[in-house]
Amino acid sequence: MDATGDRTGDVMSSAVSKPSSTSLLTVAGCRLEYRVVNESGLRPTVVFLHDGLGSIELWRTFPDDVVGATDHRGLVYSRYGHGWSDPATEPRPIDFVDREALVVLPSVLEQLDVSVPVLIGHSDGGSISLVYAAHHPVAALVLLAPHVFVEAVGLDTIATLGQRFADGELAGKMAKYHCDPVATFRAWHDVWLDRRFASWNIEYLLNRIECPVLLIQGRDDEYGTMAQIDAIERQIAGPVERVDLSECGHAPHLSQPVSTLEATVGFVRDVCGSA
């Protein structure tokens, strides 16, 4: 899902072009923007997977802060239909999580020389991380407000945001971060509210995941309850650490940046043995 409620208060409404600091690669005929942070840093590479309305820029400084504190190589990219990657020209498929995890992400990692990554996923990016880890070796997972099933509270929030989007203000705010904000919003909004998506559930994959996992969840998350990380903690095959944050919504790295960064950096250092 997304963290719009946490992050749009200071967003300007003027559109900008693709940042000069990002590059492009092609996956399945679509150009995706990406940025490598600290190219000569330690491996495994830390890969950041954004939320449902996210992009490279909407991570703010979190990737740089994590990589700077751990001295690892980092990779952050905008999925198709997000940021300054190619805009979506069709509805998002119901199986988008599987497609991103099993088709797009492996190709991105192969092209950018990433093997056995640390995946840091926020919201939809956390779900993608879990599916990838159930099928491919990973060093560790850091999951910020991930989803493994659909909850009514999240659907209600999305429906309300859809009504707000119609007045045009949110589209204006999103235009700073996405080349086609309307298409980005509709692709996310419509797939989550599609009745066929109501039964989406990836819990059956969790017992395949044996790598260390860090779960970070805000107690005031407007898109999901603590039941999400409870389910992950209960069913993951490997070691799990969790951080429950008070006064924190759907984007822990924005609502509680110090606590989230400290937990993430400490976890990556412990798992990877970095100083």
Radius of gyration: 17 Å
Residue stretches low in confidence (pLDDT < 50, at least 5 long) are 3-16
Q: What average pLDDT do the residues reach?
A: 93
Number of helices: 10
User: Which strand-content bin applies to the residues?
Assistant: 15-25%
Derived from helix and strand composition plus strand pairing, the structural class reads alpha/beta
What shape does the CA trace take? globular
Name the helicity range: 25-40%
Distance between the termini: 34 Å
Oligomer: single chain
Task: Please tell me about this protein's structure.
With 275 residues, this protein is of the alpha/beta class. Helix content is 37%, strand content 18%. It is built from ten helices and eight strands. An eight-stranded mixed sheet has the order 1-2-4-3-5-6-7-8, sandwiched between helices. β5, α4 and β6 form a beta-alpha-beta unit. α2 packs parallel to α10 and α5 packs antiparallel against α7. The N terminus is likely disordered.
List the helices and strands and how they pair.
Layout: H1 4-7, E1 23-27, E2 30-37, E3 42-49, H2 62-70, E4 72-77, H3 96-111, E5 118-122, H4 124-135, E6 140-144, H5 152-165, H6 169-174, H7 181-193, E7 213-218, H8 227-235, E8 240-245, H9 252-255, H10 257-272
Parallel strand pairs: 3-4, 3-5, 5-6, 6-7, 7-8
Antiparallel strand pairs: 1-2, 2-4
